[in-house]
Design goal:
Oligomer: single chain
CATH architecture of the largest domain: 3-Layer(aba) Sandwich
Shape: elongated
Order of helices and strands: HEHEHEHEHEEHHEHEEHHEEEHEHEHE
Number of domains: 2
Low-confidence stretches: 1-10
Strand content: 15-25%
CATH class of the largest domain: Alpha Beta
Structural class: alpha/beta
Mean pLDDT: 88
Largest sheet: 8 strands, mixed
């Protein structure tokens, strides 16, 4: 499998995210008409994808500039009125209180409409951690920690974070915060540009199914291109996918992969092709996959679990899970059948015995 087959479109990050947004409704809160030119292309892509947009703004001029139909909502049947408007136009606008009340008013509408996602377009963009770096993902417990000990400029973003909390508790599954310039990158890519807030942890580790293989194949190719994974033949890749596990974000987006390949002759298992996308490294995706492998290996009754890497950072991850460095001779003989001698000389070999 080489990533493309006749009649099949190659997996892309944007296509994967757009598939998740299709036939859903997103609320985008944007307070200034100055953002119009920057967010218009994103709205157009979403609408071509059959994604409905509710623009929340305190500036009617923004709605007019973006050709968003302004909806007047009668008391008592607001959701129905917005739904009917969206049936005839995939881009509508609700005019909310401007100024200091804008965040709360936007959050209230997102909760009232029970949208799939709320995006706050904010001039400051992503939330920063204590070291000043961008925080890509935050679940509710982590959000409460941020609110109790603000890390950025003495809590100047506390009002926004409070509204994010209220949205999550009110039933909105996900809230994004990003700048207007980076809206497309935040919604359509793994790298992202802002901060995604969710109610609970959003990473699920499970076995790969055949419908995951296109994404997994692209992820392996990325790992090879970045030098983290060794290139494999089609036969070797088939073995990886057949024994593969994926770390999935929001149930569908593949953030990391790895395989637990059995070696029946020695009653052992090997961790292979472990790789996580950069955005998710801080979320412990590699560790969650490795934890699943350790548990599965124990359930199989393996004598030991082993892995090989050329990267010290990856070796350190394995060591945190009870692996120890060993000589190549301490691994099963079948591992080295036909193995490249030059690469073998560069490997760090690691082993986790059943007693660990």
């Amino acid at each position: 499998m080489n990533g493309e087959r006749a009649g099949w479109a190659r997996f892309t990050e944007k296509a994967f995210y757009l598939a998740g947004f299709r036939d859903r409704t997103l609320a985008i809160a944007c307070s200034s008409n100055e953002c119009a030119a920057r967010i218009r292309p994103v709205l157009e892509e979403l609408e071509q994808n059959r994604t409905r947009i509710v623009l929340l703004t305190g500036d009617p001029e923004l709605a007019r500039t973006l050709d968003a139909r302004i909806v007047s909502v009668p008391p008592g049947r607001a959701i129905g009125s917005v739904w009917r408007a969206l049936c005839s136009s995939p881009r509508v606008a609700l005019i909310v209180d401007p100024g200091p009340a804008f965040l709360a008013a936007s959050r209230a509408w997102a909760v009232r409409l029970r949208v799939s996602k709320l995006v706050f377009v904010d001039a400051l963009g992503a939330v920063s951690g204590a070291d000043g770096s961008r925080v890509s993902f935050v679940h509710l417990d982590e959000l409460m920690a941020l609110l109790s000990a603000p890390a950025d400029d003495s809590g100047k973003r506390t009002p926004l974070l409070r509204e994010v909390e209220a949205a999550l508790r009110g039933g909105v599954p996900a809230v994004n915060v990003c700048t207007a310039d980076a809206l497309g990158e935040e919604l359509f890519s793994y790298a992202g540009s802002g901060t995604l807030f969710t109610l609970g942890r959003y990473v699920e580790v499970r076995r790969l199914g055949i419908d995951d293989f296109d994404a997994a194949n692209d992820l392996v190719a990325r790992g090879v291109a970045e030098g983290y994974l060794a290139a494999r033949s089609e036969e070797e890749l088939d073995l990886v996918f057949a024994n593969g596990f994926g770390a999935f974000v929001e149930s569908s987006h593949l953030a990391g992969i790895g395989a637990l390949i059995p070696h029946p002759e020695s009653r052992t298992s090997e961790v292979a092709s472990l790789y996580a996308l950069t955005r998710f490294l801080g979320e412990g995706v590699g560790g969650q996959l490795l934890d699943a492998f350790c548990r599965t290996s124990t359930e199989r009754g393996d004598a030991f679990l082993f892995a090989c890497t050329t990267t010290e950072r990856v070796a350190g991850l394995f060591e945190r899970f009870g692996f120890r460095r060993v000589a190549p001779e301490d691994l099963p003989d079948e591992k080295w059948s036909g193995y490249d001698r030059a690469r073998r000389a560069r490997l760090i070999c690691l082993r986790r015995d059943a007693a660990v």
